[in-house]
Amino acid sequence: MNHQKNSWQRLFIISLLPLFLAIFGSASWLWWNWSISPVSNIAKPQRIQITPGTASQQIGSQLEQAGLIRSKLAWSLFARYKNWQNPKTDFQAGTYELSGSQSMVVIAETIREGKVVQKSFTIPEGWSLRQMGRYFEEKGWFSAQDFLSAASQLDRKQFPWLPSDIPILEGFLYPDTYQVTYENITPQAIVDQMLKRFEQIALPVYQKAANQTKFTLKQWVTLASIVEKEAVVPQERRLIAGVFVSRLRKGMKLESDPTVEYAFGITQTPDKPLTFAQVRQPSPYNTYATPGLPPTPIAAPGLPSLEAVLNPESTEYLYFVARYDGTHVFSRTLKEHEAAVVKIRQERQKK
C-alpha cells in the first residue's frame, strides 16, 4: 500500500516537473531581462575610471556600486558567457562616461571596445609656446608654466630627429586639432602627442626634399615660422618665402616685425606699430638688429608655410609692407619700399 502511495507521489512530482521548469525558466528569463535593462530612463552620465588589470568581477562590483547596472552577478554571467575573463585584453582601462539609462550590454561593450572619454584641443597655425601655455591654462588643464617646462624637455631617445642645438620645442609642436583621453591631459603627454604629429606630417616633407634644400631642419622650421606669421592670405605665402630666401642669399637682414614681437613679448597693432627704438633693440631674435635667422623658430608653422620655404616663388622683390587688409605691397628697391610705407600710412590716417 505504501509502495503504491510512493509511486503515485513520484508520478505526481514528475508530472509537475515541466511546470517547475517552466516557472524557473520564466523567472530566470524575467530576472535576466530585468538585470540587463537600464537602471533608469533618465540618468546623468557618470565618469568611471577602470584601472589597468581590473578583473571583470571587480568591474561589475564597481558599476553596481555606482548605480549603473542592476546586478554584478548578471555582469559576471554575461562576461563568462562571452569568455571575457582576461583583465589585460578583454576590458580596456581608462575613463568612461556611462549612464544608468544604458543597458548593461551597452556598458559592457563600451568598456570592452575602449570607448573612453576624450577631450579635444586646437592649436592654430602661428601660435607660440607662450600662447599654447596660456590656452591650456585657460582651459583649466594645467598651468602655462608647467606646459613651458614640458616643452623644454627634449626627449631625443623618443624623437632622435630633433635638432641638437635647440633649447626648446618652439616650432616643432605641430598646430592641429587633437583628441586626448583624460589620462593623457598632462603637459608631457600633450607635448609628445604634438611632436608625433610633426613627425607624421611635417618631417617626411623635409626628408623628401633634404637633398634639394640647403636649409637644415631647424633653419627650415625657423624660416617657415616667420613666413607663417607674415603671410595672411594663402596666395602670398610662397612670394613672402621667396623674398626672405632672396634676402638671406644676398646677406641682407630679414627685418621681420614678428621676430621683434617675439623677442620682446609685444604685439603691434595698426594704431600702435613698432617703434624705431623697439626695432633697434638688440636681441638674437630681432632680425632688424641681428643678421640671419633667429636662434629658434618663433611660432608653430603649418604645412603650407613649411612647403612654401622648400618651394619659394622666384622673385626680384626684396621688401614688402602690410596693407592691413591681409595683403602686402611688394617692392624691388628700398626707395620703392619707403614710398609704399608712406602711402599706406597716409591712407591709414585718412581712414
The largest sheet has its strands arranged as 1-2
SS-based class:
mainly alpha
Helix tally? Answer: 14
Largest sheet: 2 strands, antiparallel
Report the sheet-strand fraction: 5-15%
Helix content: 40-55%
Rounded mean pLDDT score: 89
Number of strands: 6
Low-confidence stretches: none
Structural domain count? 3
The first-to-last residue Cα distance is 122 Å
Order of helices and strands: HEHHEHEHHEHHHHHHHEEH
Note the overall shape: elongated
Report the C-alpha radius of gyration, rounded.
33 Å
Description:
By secondary structure, the chain is mainly alpha-helical. The chain folds into three domains: 40-116, Endolytic murein transglycosylase (Dna Ligase, domain 1, 2-Layer Sandwich); 119-201, no CATH class; 212-350, no CATH class. Helix content is 48%, strand content 8%. The chain contains 14 helices and six strands. The chain has helices at residues 2-36, 56-65, 72-81, 104-112, 129-138, 144-150, 187-201, 203-209, 217-230, 237-249, 257-264, 276-280, 303-310, 334-350, and strands at 46-50, 94-98, 118-122, 177-181, 319-322, 328-331. Strands 1-2 form a two-stranded antiparallel sheet. It has a two-stranded antiparallel ribbon with strand order 3-4. Helix 5 crosses helix 6 (144-150). The protein starts with a helix and ends with a helix. The mean pLDDT is 89.
